[in-house]
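Write out the 3D structure for:
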Amino acid sequence: MRYAILVSWSLWGLSLYLFSPYLSPLLEQIVHNAELVGIIYVIASPFSILFSLLPKWFNKDNSLLIPLSLTISGIGLLTLGLSENQALAILGLILYNFYWASVPLYYVLMSNLGDGCLTRIWAISMIPAIIVPPISGLVFSKLGIRMIFVISGLTMITASLPMYKIEAKLKEEGKGETSYLPLIFTILPSSIALPFLYLDKGISESLIWLIYAIGEGLGIGMSLVLWRLKNGLSLALIVFSGIITAILYPQLGGVFYGSSEALVALGVDAVKPRDLNNAVKVTFIESTLWGVGYVIASLLYVVWASLPIIFAGLIAILFSLTLIVLSLKIFVRKLYLGKIKSLNKLIEKQTLYEGIEPYFSFA
């Protein structure tokens, strides 16, 4: 099962890394208006939220949900590649977002393999992100942007094959409160920056593949290293905030966005969605945050084209500082409680000695 998950997740990554940087440019090509690109993202977002809840309805037998959702998602990419108008583009993006139905199941399967496994598998599946962009760049230059989505769609459908009959079992939800702050801190900056990142006129479409490959290489390195560090999430946010450099150097901003892969992986892994109930909650929050981010980005873009990138970078810095402060508070609290416990033990020993001292004196 471990290898089936790794192969399927990696094929999914292969599909994603082929088309991802070209999605906004394709939508702009179809609707001929950059502002409408954000609206298409926003329209498709509620369906992502709805699809993320499907595993709850199929919790008794979800063995076919992953292959079904990936197949429909692949059909959505094919539809995007063949779209000639706004309606078809919206339909294609909605169908593509059906992959959200499989995300909670993947999370459960990967998280139950052990601590840090989700981040490590995520990092391994990102390796095609370095190899694939040159291929997508070649396809773009020889066959056009639409063929990228056709190939990606077929790859996504192929990713469903290893997951037939693999079921994510419903377990009793773990006791104790779960903090979903890591999801907010990681996904919101990523979602605000994404829609208009590759629409900057300073980024040549012929070089998108190179910028994307370098950025994903950065994300892979961060995923492999930062999951071991206590403040890895804070460091990832600081690196991500480098997208602000896109104001002066759009290409450099695109490179820093590659760190969002590590950012999202660390955020999800921090929540540890090991049972299906919690995984569905995690995915529901994720899809909602992506939708909220798209709305914020679209509104900011109307004011100033660079504003979504600036805002995303600034809140990444803010979230990083917040995590550092929270970490320091927890450290101080543990230190304080440790001293209190030591003092209590000392008092108990002193009280015990004073209680038996008269008997020693009498003897």
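Residues 359-363 have pLDDT under 50 and may be disordered.
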